[in-house]
Amino acid sequence: MRPLTQRAMEPTKASFATTQWDQEVESATAPDGHVRVHQSQAAPFSVGLPSGLARSQQLYMMQRFLNIPATPSYVAKDDGLVLDRVVVNVGGRSWWQTLTLRLRAQRAWNTQEFSKGKPHQVLGDPSMYALGGRFRVGFGAHTVLRGLGELGSLSGAVEDFRRFKRTLSRFGGGDDADADASRAANVHSSERKDTSHGDDTFRGRVTLQTKAFAGHLVSFDASLRERYQTPRKYIDGPSFFSASITSRGPRWFNYRLGVRQWLEDTLPAFEMSDVNLVLRPPPRREATAGGGGGG
């Protein structure tokens, strides 16, 4: 494809992605580095579009080749500076998996415990950490399965693990073990500080894409409470399942057809309306279509 023709197709691609909730932009708000763009948000500049290389892979390369222990970013909702480090990076010829751990460093630094010379009390608080994961699996030359997930705070996961250990102790050690577990829980509860900033919400997405059909890209997308960028702030969107088919390659007319099922029991005001540009609940099921000249 000639560069001019490819550049001419960019507005059409952006329009397709925005109307069908698929446009992404790079953002340090998520450990994975990507968030979706809300319909109310203006189309991002090219510098803000995803580069095609997963952020976790970029972090890992800086750790491995530049010996950088953790990569700093600024996230307003996390009270400033955060530090990200890839703690798991495994894979083979056709697959890979990463886990990225985030420390809310500035939030920890600003606590009274840290200023009093007791950083261990703060760094032992699971709400100071977030976890992001991403995977990719290739099936032949034309099909790929990819996914990402984010746990905004480790508080819930740590508490579930402690509860599971207490349950095992009760079954394995009788009354003595039960008493010990209860005392340990009480001690931990008395030492734990106020961590109201924690966000235990799990967000994620799984996408299956195939180019097995000549000149087309077929996608199936399952989204769970993903984060969206709006002109004022980041918001959590409702869960959905979607399927679409998009023309690809140089042609005079490009098009995209899709269907979407929103999965929440009660749909929030999330979609832009044509009247006064206010938000309204999206339809439970919807079909979308779009097309445009390819240049």
Please tell me about this protein's structure.
With 295 residues, the chain is α+β, with helices and mostly antiparallel strands. 27% of the residues lie in helices and 37% in strands. The chain is built from six helices and 16 strands. It starts with a helix and ends with a strand.
In short:
Helix content is 27%, strand content 37%. The protein has six helices and 16 strands.
List the helices and strands and how they pair.
Elements: H1 3-19, E1 24-26, E2 34-37, H2 55-65, E3 71-75, E4 80-91, E5 95-103, H3 105-109, H4 112-115, H5 119-123, E6 129-139, E7 143-151, H6 155-191, E8 202-210, E9 216-224, E10 227-229, E11 234-236, E12 240-247, E13 253-262, E14 271-272, E15 279-280, E16 285-293
Strand content: 35-45%
Approximately how much helix is present in the residues?
25-40%
- Outline type: globular
Total number of strands: 16
Please tag this protein with its features.
10-stranded antiparallel beta sheet; alpha+beta; disordered N terminus; 4-stranded mixed beta sheet; 27% helix; globular; 295 residues
